[in-house]
Amino acid sequence: MKHKITLAVSRERLLSLDALRGFDMLWITGGGALITVLAKYTGAGWLQTIADQMEHVPWNGFHFEDLIFPLFMFISGVAIPFALVSKLERKVPKKELAMKALKRVLILVLLGWIYNGVFSNGFEHPRLVSVLSQIGIAYFFASMIVIYTKSFKQRLYWLGGILVAIGIIQLLIPVPGIGAGVLTPEGCINGYIDRMILPGRLYGKVFDPEGLLCIVSAITVTLMGSVAGHILRDKKTTDPQKLKVMYLTGASAIATALILSTFYPLIKACWTSSFNILTGGIGFLLMASFYWMIDVKGWKKWSFYFRVIGMNSIFIYLLYDLVEVARNPKFLLGWTVLWGDFGQIVSIVGAMALIWSLLYYMYKKNIFIRV
Fold first, then answer.
1. Which residues contact residue 118 at a Cβ distance below 8 angstroms, ignoring those fewer than 6 apart?
2. Exposure pattern of 165-189 as b/e (b: 16+ CB <10 Å)?
3. Measured between alpha carbons, how far is 208 from 231 in angstroms, rounded to an integer?
4. What is the DSSP annotation of 261-285?
5. Cα 267 from Cα 273, distance rounded (Å)
6. Disulfide check for 226: which of 77, 155, 264, 323 has CB 3.0–4.6 Å away?
7. What pTM, to 2 d.p., does this model score?
């Protein structure tokens, strides 16, 4: 992991991108738990409706919780044109950019192994795939496509081609002894490939939601983000034109995904193309909305809380798993258990405030952990 101290925000850096990343991270760093506890404490029906969205669907379907991971991948894709295309325009060698992307993926895979505890217990029965490795590998291949294609249209061909290929594999290629298109934990071809190839343990025992075919499929979400980044970076179009294209693209993607879902289910655990298109469509709408409010209208103050989180997202993700204080707020505020459900609220809010204070300190000192 590279410890990089930056002295200023890049001219091409979108404040809205950092804010959306922070908004996304909020829900896995206490926001979702806070909503759940508030619903339990107040008994409010509308809060319970929101709290229900803070849990993954068992398999088929979609909740807000299922958006968090793919949205992060979408956001990483939005950054690609700003991080890479600008360098290509300055004639930075493609090989140099490719090597940086390769270094990034290797670091993220290693961090994923640490996160999964691969190096503990003498490497016994390790889980080799992870959220971080999927983010890194998808970013790497999306970057390679952006770096080595000659036009934006060719990138769209790659995006469409992978989406169609994943659909064909999942719906039409039979799993021995089960058949084709059986999208269940035991029957999906994702799980069959993982059981045949992946060493160690699988998260879902018979499949892994970050398995091999899932990683390939998830490249499309990062590519969709890069399309959004290309639109936002285009200097030949006005902000109203950009927003129109973004909103229309997002709405069209969502509609397409819902139509496909009538025969091709929305399943996060095996990253069906319909699920990818849906989350990409939502990503377009959210990115457009944050861009309009923050970068176009200039309403920046409300987003500061999110931007502080978003500018150190990898650090906070690792902190919440590797540091007991972050993962278990009662370790810090154990006395609040005397207050029942309200004590849980105080505990979660206190832990979130402490972690944000750390991130704010890092922000003020210009300390940003990059990979």
1. 126, 127, 128
2. ebbebbbeeebeeeeebebebebbb
3. 34
4. TTTS--BGGGT-HHHHHHHHHHHHH
5. 9
6. 77
7. 0.91
Residue 2 CA to residue 79 CA, distance in Å, equals: 18
Tokens describing residue 328: 């278990």
SS3 of residue 4 by DSSP: strand
Beta bridge mates, 60: 267
Altogether, the residues listed in the chain come to a count of: 371
Q: What is the DSSP code string of 63-127?
A: -GGGGHHHHHHHHHHHHHIIIIIHHHHTT--HHHHHHHHHHHHHHHHHHHHHHHTTTSGGG-S--
Distances (CA, A) of 190 to 61, 144, 165, 328: 17, 24, 13, 34
Tokens of 322: 């590797």
DSSP state of 268: G
Q: Are 104 and 250 in contact (CB under 8 A)?
A: no
Contact 332, 325 (CB under 8 A): yes
Render pLDDT for 201-242 as a digit per residue (tens, 0 to 9).
899 889 999 999 999 999 999 999 999 999 999 999 999 999
pLDDT in tens, 150-172: 889 999 999 999 999 999 999 99
Strands 367-370 and 2-5: antiparallel
CA dist., res. 181 & res. 165, Å (int): 14
For 229, residues 6+ apart whose C-beta sits below 8 A from its C-beta are 77, 78, 79, 80, 81, 82
Half-sphere exposure of 169 (CA within 13 A, CB side): 21
Residue 147 structure tokens: 């770096």
**Given pLDDT bands bounded at 50, 70 and 90, which one contains residue 122?**
low
Show the DSSP H helices in 312-340 as ranges.
Answer: 313-322, 324-327, 329-332
Amino acid at residue number 75: I
Contact 359, 309 (CB under 8 A): yes
Residue 4, phi then psi, degrees to nearest 5: -120, 125
User: Does position 10 have pLDDT exceeding 50, yes or no?
Assistant: no
What does the block give as tokens for 267? 């399943």
Which amino acid appears at position 177 of this protein? Answer: G
Q: Tell me the backbone φ, ψ of residue 211, rounded to 5 degrees.
A: -75, -175
Give the whole-angstrom CA distance, residue 164 versus residue 210: 20
Task: Label residue 205 exposed, middle or buried (CB < 10 Å: 0-12, 13-18, 19+).
Answer: exposed
